[in-house]
């Protein structure tokens, strides 16, 4: 048995198909079938029930899968640590970004880092902050941007942007001429929110409850530009970070929220009690230094 047996077993379990796993791994179906059969022979147990249309793990298969994933992660960590010894000549950093943020400054810093370390590669994955935290826990991401507070027992973090949330309305809306608005005044409004994968959804819902009502949500989205178009079409109003509201191309009005005052605090997080590659450590150091050099206006 070698590490390939376990990697192939993990992929077959994932796709529930020899054919699909083989296509994903760029090998032939007979090759992967033979490898799994050899693994079953070595272990003395069948790992898959082949009597169904899709492969189903046996009890032994489920047991082995957990151990195989642990061994595979350890092997990948070993490869990463060996790359560290090469002095940042190689490396790969997986970063989670919420599509709700203005990423221009962040991407600029990423470009500056790439100029210093051109052989380090990046995987940028857009998702809501809840999914980003979940993927860091599951070792699918190395670092991510989320909204504070987060679980301090699980994650290291540093904050780099705190700003107001603004009510965004079309020019013909009765609130359009206002400089500020209380949350309780939004009780009858139709709200367009980011979906429940985003911590901002919880923040706004909680603020509505504190003001004594449940929000009337007419639509949810994952894209701030689409929310702007819906507001302009008078489908409803929204509450967005100030930096995001400034990106909207439509002719819209923004209003400060008071009682309670709504803010959000963006931070970069990474997992505690887990190996962090040398490339990721250097990226964190460099990015924190650059982000702290300037404070965005609100």
UniProtKB/TrEMBL annotation:
The molecule here is called: DNA-binding transcriptional LysR family regulator
Name its species. Sinobaca qinghaiensis
MF terms (GO), sorted A to Z: DNA binding; DNA-binding transcription factor activity
Q: Which family does it belong to?
A: Belongs to the LysR transcriptional regulatory family.
* Keywords from the UniProt entry: DNA-binding, Transcription, Transcription regulation
- Spell out the Gene3D superfamilies in the cross-references: 3.40.190.290, Winged helix-like DNA-binding domain superfamily/Winged helix DNA-binding domain
Can you name a GO cellular component term? Answer: cytosol
Residues in domain HTH lysR-type? 1-58
Q: Decide whether keyword Protein transport is in the record.
A: no
Pfam families per record: HTH_1 (PF00126), LysR_substrate (PF03466)
> Does the keyword Lipid biosynthesis feature in the UniProt annotation?
no
Task: State the taxonomy lineage.
Answer: Bacteria, Bacillati, Bacillota, Bacilli, Bacillales
């Amino acid at each position: 048995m070698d590490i390939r047996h376990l990697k192939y077993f993990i992929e077959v379990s994932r796709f529930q198909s020899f054919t699909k796993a083989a296509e994903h791994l760029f090998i032939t179906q007979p090759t992967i079938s033979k490898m799994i059969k050899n693994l079953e022979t070595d272990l003395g147990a069948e790992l898959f029930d082949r009597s169904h249309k899709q492969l189903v793990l046996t009890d032994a298969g489920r047991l082995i899968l957990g151990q195989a994933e642990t061994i595979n992660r350890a092997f990948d960590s070993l490869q990463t640590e060996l790359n560290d010894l090469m002095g940042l000549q190689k490396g790969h950093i997986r970063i989670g970004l919420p599509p709700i943020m203005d990423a221009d400054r962040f991407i600029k810093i990423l470009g500056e880092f790439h100029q210093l370390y051109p052989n380090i590669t990046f995987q940028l994955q857009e998702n809501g902050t809840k999914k980003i935290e979940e993927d860091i826990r599951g070792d699918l991401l190395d670092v991510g941007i989320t909204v504070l507070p987060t679980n301090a027992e699980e994650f290291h973090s540093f904050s780099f942007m705190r700003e107001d949330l603004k009510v965004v309305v079309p020019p013909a809306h009765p609130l359009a001429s206002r400089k500020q608005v209380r949350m309780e005044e939004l009780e009858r409004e139709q709200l367009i929110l980011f979906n429940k994968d985003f911590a901002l959804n919880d923040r706004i819902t909680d603020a509505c409850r504190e003001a004594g009502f449940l929000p009337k949500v007419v639509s949810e989205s994952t894209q701030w530009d689409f929310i702007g178009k819906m507001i302009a079409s008078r489908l409803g109003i929204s509450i967005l970070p100030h930096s995001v509201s400034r990106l909207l191309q439509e002719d819209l009005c923004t209003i400060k929220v008071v009682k309670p005052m709504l803010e959000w605090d963006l931070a970069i997080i990474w997992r505690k009690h887990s190996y962090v590659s040398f490339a990721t450590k250097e990226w964190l150091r460099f990015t924190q230094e650059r982000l702290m050099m300037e404070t965005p206006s609100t």
